[in-house]
Amino acid sequence: xxxxxxxxxxxxxxxxxxxxxxxxxxxxxxxxxxxxxxxxxxxxxxxxxxxxxxxxxxxxxxxxxxxxxxxxxxxxxxxxxxxxxxxxxxxxxxxxxxxxxxxxxxxxxxxxxxxxxxxxxxxxxxxxxxxxxxxxxxxxxxxxxxxxxxxxxxxxxxxxxxxxxxxxxxxxxxxxxxxxxxxxxxxxxxxxxxxxxxxxxxxxxxxxxxxxxxxxxxxxxxxxxxxxxxxxxxxxxxxxxxxxxxxxxxxxxxxxxxxxxxxxxxxxxxxxxxxxxxxxxxxxxxxxxxxxxxxxxxxxxxxxxxxxxxxxxxxxxxxxxxxxxxxxxxxxxxxxxxxxxxxxxxxxxxxxxxxxxxxxxxxxxxxxxxxxxxxxxxxxxxxxxxxxxxxxxxxxxxxxxxxxxxxxxxxxxxxxxxxxxxxxxxxxxxxxx
Amino acid sequence: xxxxxxxxxxxxxxxxxxxxxxxxxxxxxxxxxxxxxxxxxxxxxxxxxxxxxxxxxxxxxxxxxxxxxxxxxxxxxxxxxxxxxxxxxxxxxxxxxxxxxxxxxxxxxxxxxxxxxxxxxxxxxxxxxxxxxxxxxxxxxxxxxxxxxxxxxxxxxxxxxxxxxxxxxxxxxxxxxxxxxxxxxxxxxxxxxxxxxxxxxxxxxxxxxxxxxxxxxxxxxxxxxxxxxxxxxxxxxxxxxxxxxxxxxxxxxxxxxxxxxxxxxxxxxxxxxxxxxxxxxxxxxxxxxxxxxxxxxxxxxxxxxxxxxxxxxxxxxxxxxxxxxxxxxxxxxxxxxxxxxxxxxxxxxxxxxxxxxxxxxxxxxxxxxxxxxxxxxxxxxxxxxxxxxxxxxxxxxxxxxxxxxxxxxxxxxxxxxxxxxxxxxxxxxxxxxxxxxxxxxxxxxxxxxxxxxxxxxxxxxxxxxxxxxxxxxxxxxxxxxxxxxx
Amino acid sequence: xxxxxxxxxxxxxxxxxxxxxxxxxxxxxxxxxxxxxxxxxxxxxxxxxxxxxxxxxxxxxxxxxxxxxxxxxxxxxxxxxxxxxxxxxxxxxxxxxxxxxxxxxxxxxxxxxxxxxxxxxxxxxxxxxxxxxxxxxxxxxxxxxxxxxxxxxxxxxxxxxxxxxxxxxxxxxxxxxxxxxxxxxxxxxxxxxxxxxxxxxxxxxxxxxxxxxxxxxxxxxxxxxxxxxxxxxxxxxxxxxxxxxxxxxxxxxxxxxxxxxxxxxxxxxxxxxxxxxxxxxxxxxxxxxxxxxxxxxxxxxxxxxxxxxxxxxxxxxxxxxxxxxxxxxxxxxxxxxxxxxxxxxxxxxxxxxxxxxxxxxxxxxxxxxxxxxxxxxxxxxxxxxxxxxxxxxxxxxxxxxxxxxxxxxxxxxxxxxxxxxxxxxxxxxxxxxxxxxxxxxxxxxxxx
Lengths: 433, 486, 448
Ligand SMILES: Cc1cc2nc3c(=O)[nH]c(=O)nc-3n(C[C@H](O)[C@H](O)[C@H](O)COP(=O)(O)OP(=O)(O)OC[C@H]3O[C@@H](n4cnc5c(N)ncnc54)[C@H](O)[C@@H]3O)c2cc1C
Ligand SMILES: Cc1cc2nc3c(=O)[nH]c(=O)nc-3n(C[C@H](O)[C@H](O)[C@H](O)COP(=O)(O)OP(=O)(O)OC[C@H]3O[C@@H](n4cnc5c(N)ncnc54)[C@H](O)[C@@H]3O)c2cc1C
Ligand code: SF4
Ligand code: SF4
Fold this sequence. Notes:
heterotrimer; A: alpha+beta; Uridine Diphospho-n-acetylenolpyruvylglucosamine Reductase, domain 3; Alpha-Beta Plaits; 8-stranded antiparallel β-sheet; 5-stranded antiparallel β-sheet; B: alpha+beta; 5 domains; 7-stranded antiparallel β-sheet; 17 helices; 20 strands; binds flavin-adenine dinucleotide
């Protein structure tokens, strides 16, 4: 049988295994797949993936499609694998604070179910009705709340993945403490679906705080804002997120303030939240131009906005970059970013996640060449840099994951072991794996 | 293997003081803290004590050249036989690499060598307002490297999370001989999370030569409560009630009557001896929250039938309450010449039926079983007391262990909560994992260590191999589809 | 799971004083003791750890290692018998007991080296066996120290020949006064709270006579009559620790005979090494028909002076002593008797005195009875480490509570040219009392 014939036969076979979708709605960096299909069951998915692997079909797992901006340009794109039919909540034990959910379930659905029992996954999201749990884990992007609650990875207690050979492989379990076997959760977390298709995730969930407040302080100078934020980080106070925003970034998330803005989030029982917000307010007040406290819904909305602004949604005429750095050195990094942009026709906004040690910057420009140049400069800053999203032209011939990570040889070996024919998100992951 | 040549080469790397190959002296490297009855004696061919990461790298290169296994070892406090050189070869004792290289107070991390002792790191950072959160009961002896390899837990992991949550980065020597730094002080470095994969891999994927740990700020306030209950059942209910109320204690530990009695006899910690079970609950955080939660916890305990609730007011009182808990395993050693510690986790709500089952099995097998465990996260530690010189006891202990594990797995639990699989528990892996699951894990191992040089014969069931599974699966698929893949 | 063969076969140890296999196997090799073991901390080798040593004993018991294996003898003598391991062992392994039995095995079955025999003869049989002879020898030593004899011996290399260089360096400067158990009696000065007997011992009675005097002053001041009952002798610690339990038993019986009196409330000891062994007489004499029961009753009355004072409380308020000190834990106080809180409590009871804790205060200083004579290298490594830690505190005095430790520290300080004094805790307390307003002038205690 010719290669082409195998290819066609495989596609036809796969088309029968799931519900077909309109390929035009699965555009990735300007490319469309030959086929888009939504498998109705894990068994169907296993067979689809096995066939795709044998036939060498370039396959892209697809969740809500909200974060497809992250990843290198695909080497090829034959098959979009829409996982949203695998969307059940498999097992929820409110008293154990654990939940098992299929990868295609949206964050919105899951949150609604958890919320009914006063529980949550501590992730903020501007598009909860589109974002899938599988996508959350595959991209491994977590917002500023990781400071208070840890990254989603720390809440992940079990995983099921369909490997390219069709095997269903599980790791972990439904208990909150488990060291039986290797940590397969961490293997797949943030691996961008390059080693397997995630079908189920088990989490420990968190009691939803009964109230929240955000202290918002505006400063004229970055140094003052940073000094206040770092002082809180170093204290025994326990905010769940600390972010500094420059003026433009503040406006993007709906805060009409000048200079630099510090946003500090407190969550917990009402009395404690109030006292903590007071104490934080007192500590950051001296050098501040202005101090506001957002309560309840207003606070929640601000953080959803911030998460949206720093996410990896596909962008035109703009790029978004994330740079890792020691929290205490983030202010300096913000200035380096400024210097890197000199001479370029770009508008920049910066969010410094002081709690976690990450800086996000969005650069907008009509000139793709300037965006490209800006990325090349930013890619050298901090401890690591990632191009979260960019127009395809900017992505040509660059690794959006920045500098070559240590251990790439092992990552390559992992890719070759799990995906020997290289069909899953081909070329999109770090080092074009 | 040319022993003489190997010895010569090692000598050049670590010097005479770094090598032990006298067969008699090697006797003291044939055990770890696991029970020898179950783990056996395994003498390495040679023990090597490196002082630097460079030396470790050279040793690994040598192992590759000679094709001999390397088993890393910390303080040898592991309970699963993971640090035993079951296939001989080199036993790499990491305890001489024990320097604290950096403490960064501003950004809250430290870089240490793997041989640093867990408690010593916390003691060192405490005056600066920080501690290292994972606190296994063995913390005064075990090494950070061992904690990393076993992803160790401890009482305070209920709130702060296990070791994995506190490791920011690792310098490791991989089986290929490559030495790399994974992770770093800023999170989310791109690529596969090698740090996350290495933590808990029991020395089978890489040898850790430096560790970047997260330091946790000491809480503003701490409060310890001791609640006495008539039985395990009511104590378990209180546990669930506290968690369900949305309170997350720093630690929530349970002890049964046998344990209380033993602890009292040995240490006079002042536990109520007539209680059927006690809960030790530590709350920490902001002063306001701690005070409020403490009242709430006391109330919940009483509602669940607590006969007495005590609050430690001073650091000294706190210490005393903890002393009993921390010395509990040891106190068991006084009750019986041998004990076998089963480390398993069940969903928290399954604790009451699990405790009942353990009790029934204790009667059925005529073995005394003491319970002292991390109730907050459902991590139980039934301690089966026995005497290996009594004929037939060992077999009963084995069968009892299998029954306990099987029950825990049946109610949705797992094989090990914090001590690891190692050598001792590897054959139980098939209780929770299918061949496919294990094949994927084997794939991970193969990607790191294709020659199986690092800590062989651990984690995977004896005789496990999945080479043929794949080929068969492909044939079947091709037949079914009528497609001839190229 | 592979189940190892059960191996109840016991051989290897033979004759008298066989280490109790049940004690050996009560070690579950958990490793908790490793970080506190001085020899392990220095060498980093498992064989030099408590767990390793117990495993070696076990291997001999199970016939997997030969009793004559040099490795075993090496480790049994390298061990300081400081018992730090015992204090932290959660399983309650009675390490000191099996170590001493193992040493007794070696003494029984191993031909001794010249050096050891010499020391054993000189140290134990001749000197400590009989206090009168000890005092006489001490006078000779004093003569030796003062006259040119010492210089001659040093120059002639005689000491080196005998492996005694270290012994010479360690030799205490002998006090002019001796305190002798001659039946003398010192009545309580304040309100009378009880009557105690002072255990005089050997080294304390001679080189540290002033500490005895201080002890008597502090006790009487606190309302206790103090009796120096005659007939008592050396405690036997050195004999027991080095594998000669028979001599130890002889001395124990003598002390029990002398001190077992219904008229005293407690036997007070101010040398931690002695108090520790006096408390172990029941084990030592466990198989002695006539003495087993008496030993239990006797030991129940034994108190280290520090323990006793804290137990009974100070009835007199010490005066202010404005100085900074650091405290060096004697192993036989901290580990063998678990007395760690009380010394600090006493120091803290002294107004204006500041206690600065040194790092590793519970790590052995390397003295360990006559260990520093037998294993000079390890002993001096540990000593240097101890001195570094102690001096790093900037203290004006190092406080301890055992003559062996004090000798060792003093020798080390002298060699370094340091002027920091080493004081017994009771001396410090005594000075504080001297500074107290209501103090009567200290009475001269009759010497000799
Ligand atoms: C800085 C930052 C912070 C963020 N913080 C938060 C936060 O706090 N809370 C929050 O909710 N969201 C947050 N997000 C957004 C969140 O990461 C995305 O919403 C989510 O990853 C997208 O889900 P999706 O279903 O749309 O994935 P898609 O856009 O469909 O897919 C994303 C990638 O994952 C792969 N993928 C998707 N599903 C699977 C699967 N089942 N198996 C294998 N691979 C798969 C795809 O191939 C694709 O490469 C943040 C994003 C960023 C950049
Ligand atoms: C009484 C007692 C109580 C205990 N309590 C707890 C508890 O509460 N919680 C808990 O989690 N555990 C507990 N343990 C188990 C044990 O102490 C921990 O697993 C500990 O982390 C082991 O550390 P170690 O230095 O002794 O490692 P070892 O036992 O020497 O080795 C353990 C594993 O780590 C590997 N390893 C060691 N160093 C390195 C390195 N540098 N690089 C790579 N691999 C390495 C070894 O190969 C082996 O697989 C207890 C043990 C005892 C005896
Ligand atoms: S602490 Fe005790 S039980 Fe543990 S190894 Fe040491 S002696 Fe053995
Ligand atoms: S007595 Fe001291 S030196 Fe000997 S093994 Fe115990 S701790 Fe080590």
